[in-house]
From TrEMBL:
PANTHER family: SULFUR CARRIER PROTEIN CYSO, SULFUR CARRIER PROTEIN SLR0821-RELATED. It comes from the Bacteria. Signal peptide: none annotated. This is Molybdopterin converting factor small subunit. Pfam families: ThiS. The lineage of its organism: Bacteria, Bacillati, Chloroflexota, Ktedonobacteria, Ktedonobacterales.
Length: 90
């Protein structure tokens, strides 16, 4: 199982956990496993079956936008990080 880490703002959707294990051979399968267990997470990560442009997703510190997106291979010892994009300032 891959380890999935959550930014603090997403932790309420996963019962306050910083990290959970998820099954799947691709990022899409890992996310599907998460969404089955934590349905409110889907609206934040993948509304309308597309990855939100406001969430950065990394597999082993590599941005999936530069890999294969939802088809990115995820191994049993890999780490997936879900990190909302930050904006603001003056």
């Amino acid at each position: 199982m891959a380890n999935v880490r959550f930014a603090p703002i997403l932790r309420a959707s996963v019962g306050g956990s910083k990290q959970v294990a998820a099954q799947g051979n691709t990022l899409g399968e890992v996310l599907a496993d998460l969404f089955e267990r934590y349905p409110t997470l889907k609206q934040q990560i993948q509304p309308d079956n597309e990855l939100s442009r406001f969430i950065n997703i990394y597999v082993n510190d590599q941005d999936v936008r530069y890999l294969q997106g939802l088809e990115t291979v995820v191994g049993a010892n890999d780490t997936v990080i879900l990190l909302p994009a930050m904006a603001g300032g003056r």
